[in-house]
Specification:
alpha/beta; Ribose 5-phosphate Isomerase B, Chain: A; 7 helices
């Protein structure tokens, strides 16, 4: 799977995530500090760039990091077709995939440990029944269309 990976600054846990993704045969597209190696002045621009990579089909999903994870989830959710979920544990990640069909995993650089990162990634990438949660996602899509 093609994964957009973005952060505004580098944290050691990113290496764990990158290694896990590569070990599971995902192709990575890096944005922001993960691409440049430098702290980004803005978390908004690289997050928007990564979200657009998903929107346009260059990537299928994304994993977005910032200090709290909130900022990247807000930016990502402004891009049509993106359903970003801020997750702090494996069960939240699993639920976001099943019930919300989330396509962007938003994570907190501040909170994420190596072990928790691996648990979240395992839960996020588990196979799931796409029909489960479909009614809620259809309702969400109808709501988005009504308010836009």
């Amino acid at each position: 799977m093609k994964i957009a990976l973005v952060s505004d600054e580098f944290h050691p846990v990113h290496n764990v995530v990158i290694d896990w993704l590569k070990d599971h045969d995902h192709q990575l597209f890096l944005f922001g500090a993960l691409k440049s190696g430098h702290v980004e002045e803005s978390w908004v621009a690289p997050t928007a760039e990564a979200a657009h990579a998903i929107q346009t089909g260059k990537c299928q999903e994304g994993i977005f990091f910032c200090w709290t994870g909130t900022g990247v989830s807000i930016v990502a959710n402004k891009v049509p077709g993106i359903r970003a979920a801020l997750c702090t544990d494996a069960e939240t990640a699993r639920g976001a995939r099943v019930w919300n069909h989330a396509n962007v995993l938003a994570l907190s650089n501040r909170l994420l440990s190596q072990d928790v990162a691996k648990e979240i990634l395992t839960a996020w990438f588990e196979d799931f029944d796409a029909q489960k949660g479909e009614t809620g996602v259809d309702e969400l899509t109808a709501f988005e269309n009504a308010v836009s």
